[in-house]
């Protein structure tokens, strides 16, 4: 799966009116299928560190588009398992260090392609080993490191929560067993990242950012603490900050004074959906903005109109359309 941008650009077909825009599903499927044929391009090799992420983004987009089998399952399975380390972690590509982000992506891929039996054949007790790898990355204050080198980020905490949940190893899923992680310390850390403007930052005292809002709200949702922590007043405050991310074009930005970007259709939209405030966005204008960022000729979605398409913005544009109920797209879980 190539992470290289292009060759197409987001644009509106000549003479096409906004009300005539539609999602070119077949073109997007063909675009994603073509990404693994670009191995002779330099960008294919320069983006090796994102390979598992690219597979996850492409496969998720295909599932939402109703074409879950458009990529060869055996090839996906073989590649993902080639990234598995003896300690239960997955790297971004074969030979890369294990990292919690790519472990999470790999578990999501295995979930989508029903690959856990193959995991067990390759590594006995594989699910438990993956869960142990993740649990060992938790720090005393509740945070999670991404890998053995110790960088911490709320993204890593959310990755830990959703991956353990998919594996069935969150403490509430195994009440009769000793907990593998300290959920209370982790959610206390998330709450310390909550700012007075209603948003969340990457660390306590850090600027609010839509991507970090998603990870923090998602973690609280997986832990079952979202409603009890925020309450209606907290949801209103956060919803106000998130809805202010929508600009005149209909697109969304990640924080004040920044450009709109299709990927925030997901980060902002999913966060609003989790707090039942998605209707605070102008969903029709958001839909139009996303469709203006697709390449109607070659497929793929860009961050903004006239920019080059890539698989990252393709999946988050499609996921954003799913959130607002665009016809023919599968339903996505906002958490």
Automatic annotation (TrEMBL):
Domain Prenyltransferase alpha-alpha toroid intervals: 24-334
UniProt xrefs under Pfam families: Prenyltrans
Highest taxon listed in the record's lineage: Eukaryota
Alphabetical GO biological process terms: protein localization to membrane
CC per GO annotation: Rab-protein geranylgeranyltransferase complex
Keywords assigned by UniProt, alphabetized: Metal-binding, Prenyltransferase, Repeat, Transferase, Zinc
Cofactor(s) required for function per UniProt: Zn(2+)
Enzyme class, broadest EC rank: transferase
Classification via InterPro entries: PGGT1B-like, Prenyltrans, Ptb1, Terpenoid_cyclase/PrenylTrfase
Entry EC number(s): 2.5.1.60
Catalytic reaction(s) noted: geranylgeranyl diphosphate + L-cysteinyl-[protein] = S-geranylgeranyl-L-cysteinyl-[protein] + diphosphate
One example GO MF annotation: metal ion binding
Cofactor note: Binds 1 zinc ion per subunit.
Transmembrane spans: none
PANTHER family, per the entry: GERANYLGERANYL TRANSFERASE TYPE BETA SUBUNIT, GERANYLGERANYL TRANSFERASE TYPE-2 SUBUNIT BETA
Family: Belongs to the protein prenyltransferase subunit beta family.
Subunit structure: Heterodimer of an alpha and a beta subunit.
Function: Catalyzes the transfer of a geranylgeranyl moiety from geranylgeranyl diphosphate to both cysteines of proteins with the C-terminal sequence -XXCC, -XCXC and -CCXX.
This protein's name: Geranylgeranyl transferase type-2 subunit beta
Species: Friedmanniomyces endolithicus
Gene: BET2_3
């Amino acid at each position: 799966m190539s992470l290289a941008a292009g060759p197409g650009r987001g644009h509106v077909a000549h003479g096409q009116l906004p009300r005539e825009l539609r999602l070119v599903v077949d073109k997007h499927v063909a675009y994603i299928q073509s990404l693994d044929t670009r191995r002779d391009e330099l960008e294919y090799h320069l983006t090796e560190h994102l390979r598992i992420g690219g597979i996850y983004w492409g496969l998720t987009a295909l599932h939402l588009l109703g074409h879950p089998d458009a990529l060869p399952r055996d090839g996906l399975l073989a590649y993902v398992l080639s990234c598995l380390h003896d300690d239960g972690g997955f790297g971004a590509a074969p030979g890369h260090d294990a990292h919690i982000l790519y472990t999470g992506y790999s578990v999501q891929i295995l979930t989508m392609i029903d690959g856990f039996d193959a995991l067990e054949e390759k590594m006995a007790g594989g699910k438990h080993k993956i869960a142990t790898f993740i649990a060992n990355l938790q720090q005393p204050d509740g945070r999670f490191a991404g890998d053995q080198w110790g960088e911490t980020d709320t993204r890593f905490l959310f990755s830990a929560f959703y991956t353990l949940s998919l594996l069935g190893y969150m403490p509430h899923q195994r009440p009769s067993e000793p907990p593998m992680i300290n959920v209370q310390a982790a959610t206390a850390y998330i709450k310390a990242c909550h700012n007075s403007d209603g948003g969340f930052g990457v660390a306590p005292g850090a600027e609010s950012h839509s991507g970090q809002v998603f990870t923090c709200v998602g973690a609280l949702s997986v832990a079952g603490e979202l409603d009890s922590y925020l309450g209606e007043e907290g949801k209103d405050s956060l919803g106000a900050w998130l809805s202010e991310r929508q600009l005149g074009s209909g697109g969304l930005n990640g924080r004040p004074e920044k450009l709109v970007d299709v990927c925030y259709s997901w980060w902002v939209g999913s966060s609003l959906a989790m707090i039942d405030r998605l209707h605070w966005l102008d969903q029709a204008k958001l839909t139009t903005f996303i469709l203006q960022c697709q390449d109607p000729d070659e497929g793929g979605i860009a961050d903004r109109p006239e920019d080059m398409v890539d698989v990252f913005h393709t999946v988050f544009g499609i996921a954003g359309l799913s959130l607002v109920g665009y016809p023919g797209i599968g339903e996505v879980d906002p958490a």
